[in-house]
Amino acid sequence: MTEIITEIEQAVHPAAVPSVPVTLAGPVSVALLAAEFGAYFSLTLTGTEQAQKILPYDKHRYQAFISVSYDVPQTGATPYGVWVGSEAQVKAVPALGFLLETGILLPVCHRQPVWIVGTGTPAVVNVSVARHEPGES
To answer: Can you name the CATH fold of 36-131?
Structure first.
Protein backbone atom coordinates (compact mmCIF):
# COMPACT_ATOMS: atom_id res chain seq x y z
CA MET A 1 0.00 0.00 0.00
CA THR A 2 2.84 2.38 0.84
CA GLU A 3 4.36 1.79 -2.60
CA ILE A 4 1.11 2.83 -4.31
CA ILE A 5 0.92 6.07 -2.28
CA THR A 6 4.56 6.85 -3.13
CA GLU A 7 3.88 6.30 -6.84
CA ILE A 8 0.81 8.57 -6.70
CA GLU A 9 2.75 11.31 -4.89
CA GLN A 10 5.55 11.13 -7.48
CA ALA A 11 3.03 11.38 -10.32
CA VAL A 12 1.23 14.35 -8.72
CA HIS A 13 4.42 16.13 -7.63
CA PRO A 14 7.06 15.39 -10.29
CA ALA A 15 10.65 16.42 -9.65
CA ALA A 16 11.58 19.89 -10.88
CA VAL A 17 13.06 19.98 -14.36
CA PRO A 18 16.44 21.74 -14.37
CA SER A 19 16.88 24.71 -16.70
CA VAL A 20 19.19 24.21 -19.65
CA PRO A 21 21.13 27.06 -21.30
CA VAL A 22 20.35 27.42 -25.01
CA THR A 23 22.45 29.24 -27.61
CA LEU A 24 20.97 30.23 -30.97
CA ALA A 25 23.20 30.29 -34.02
CA GLY A 26 21.81 31.83 -37.19
CA PRO A 27 18.41 33.25 -38.03
CA VAL A 28 15.39 32.29 -35.95
CA SER A 29 11.79 32.45 -37.12
CA VAL A 30 9.50 34.32 -34.75
CA ALA A 31 5.72 34.44 -34.95
CA LEU A 32 3.93 37.18 -33.05
CA LEU A 33 0.84 36.07 -31.23
CA ALA A 34 -2.38 38.02 -31.37
CA ALA A 35 -3.26 39.65 -28.10
CA GLU A 36 -5.56 37.71 -25.80
CA PHE A 37 -7.62 40.67 -24.60
CA GLY A 38 -8.70 44.05 -25.95
CA ALA A 39 -10.31 47.01 -24.25
CA TYR A 40 -11.73 50.20 -25.70
CA PHE A 41 -12.93 53.38 -24.04
CA SER A 42 -13.43 57.09 -24.59
CA LEU A 43 -13.06 59.98 -22.16
CA THR A 44 -14.93 63.23 -22.73
CA LEU A 45 -12.96 66.21 -21.42
CA THR A 46 -14.51 69.62 -20.86
CA GLY A 47 -11.10 71.27 -20.77
CA THR A 48 -10.96 71.98 -17.04
CA GLU A 49 -9.86 68.56 -15.73
CA GLN A 50 -6.68 67.94 -13.81
CA ALA A 51 -4.05 65.51 -15.11
CA GLN A 52 -5.27 61.91 -15.07
CA LYS A 53 -3.83 58.46 -15.62
CA ILE A 54 -5.49 56.74 -18.59
CA LEU A 55 -3.27 53.64 -18.73
CA PRO A 56 -1.71 52.09 -15.61
CA TYR A 57 1.59 50.22 -15.58
CA ASP A 58 0.81 46.92 -17.28
CA LYS A 59 3.46 44.25 -17.78
CA HIS A 60 1.09 42.35 -20.08
CA ARG A 61 0.23 45.27 -22.39
CA TYR A 62 1.11 44.40 -25.97
CA GLN A 63 0.15 47.71 -27.52
CA ALA A 64 -2.28 50.59 -27.06
CA PHE A 65 -3.46 53.42 -29.29
CA ILE A 66 -4.63 56.87 -28.25
CA SER A 67 -6.40 59.41 -30.46
CA VAL A 68 -8.31 62.61 -29.84
CA SER A 69 -11.30 64.26 -31.48
CA TYR A 70 -13.33 67.38 -30.76
CA ASP A 71 -17.00 68.14 -30.18
CA VAL A 72 -16.63 71.78 -31.19
CA PRO A 73 -14.85 73.53 -34.07
CA GLN A 74 -11.39 74.92 -33.29
CA THR A 75 -11.15 78.68 -32.87
CA GLY A 76 -8.47 80.93 -31.47
CA ALA A 77 -4.83 80.32 -30.68
CA THR A 78 -5.31 77.73 -27.90
CA PRO A 79 -4.07 74.35 -29.18
CA TYR A 80 -6.76 71.70 -29.36
CA GLY A 81 -5.78 68.29 -28.08
CA VAL A 82 -4.33 66.76 -24.97
CA TRP A 83 -0.84 66.53 -23.56
CA VAL A 84 0.30 62.91 -23.23
CA GLY A 85 3.25 61.78 -21.13
CA SER A 86 4.42 60.71 -17.71
CA GLU A 87 2.78 62.02 -14.56
CA ALA A 88 5.59 64.55 -14.06
CA GLN A 89 5.33 65.78 -17.65
CA VAL A 90 1.60 66.43 -17.71
CA LYS A 91 1.56 67.96 -14.21
CA ALA A 92 4.35 70.41 -15.09
CA VAL A 93 3.47 74.06 -15.65
CA PRO A 94 3.31 74.51 -18.57
CA ALA A 95 2.49 70.91 -19.48
CA LEU A 96 5.20 68.89 -21.21
CA GLY A 97 5.12 65.64 -23.13
CA PHE A 98 3.49 65.13 -26.53
CA LEU A 99 0.65 67.36 -27.77
CA LEU A 100 -1.77 64.85 -29.28
CA GLU A 101 -4.04 66.57 -31.79
CA THR A 102 -6.80 65.27 -34.04
CA GLY A 103 -5.65 63.10 -36.93
CA ILE A 104 -2.79 61.54 -34.98
CA LEU A 105 -3.00 57.93 -33.81
CA LEU A 106 -0.45 57.59 -31.03
CA PRO A 107 0.87 54.03 -30.54
CA VAL A 108 1.93 53.09 -27.00
CA CYS A 109 4.48 50.27 -27.12
CA HIS A 110 5.67 50.31 -23.51
CA ARG A 111 4.40 49.17 -20.13
CA GLN A 112 4.71 52.45 -18.22
CA PRO A 113 1.67 54.42 -17.05
CA VAL A 114 0.30 57.01 -19.50
CA TRP A 115 -1.11 60.31 -18.27
CA ILE A 116 -3.03 63.07 -20.05
CA VAL A 117 -4.10 66.62 -19.36
CA GLY A 118 -6.24 68.82 -21.58
CA THR A 119 -5.24 72.11 -23.16
CA GLY A 120 -8.27 73.96 -21.81
CA THR A 121 -10.54 73.04 -24.73
CA PRO A 122 -13.16 70.26 -24.96
CA ALA A 123 -11.93 66.99 -26.43
CA VAL A 124 -12.75 63.29 -26.63
CA VAL A 125 -9.84 60.92 -25.97
CA ASN A 126 -10.18 57.44 -27.51
CA VAL A 127 -8.10 54.52 -26.20
CA SER A 128 -7.68 50.93 -27.34
CA VAL A 129 -5.50 48.44 -25.48
CA ALA A 130 -4.30 44.95 -26.43
CA ARG A 131 -2.98 42.62 -23.69
CA HIS A 132 -1.37 39.19 -23.57
CA GLU A 133 -2.36 36.51 -21.11
CA PRO A 134 0.17 36.26 -18.26
CA GLY A 135 2.94 33.90 -19.37
CA GLU A 136 2.64 34.78 -23.08
CA SER A 137 4.44 37.51 -24.98
So the answer is: Jelly Rolls (2.60.120)
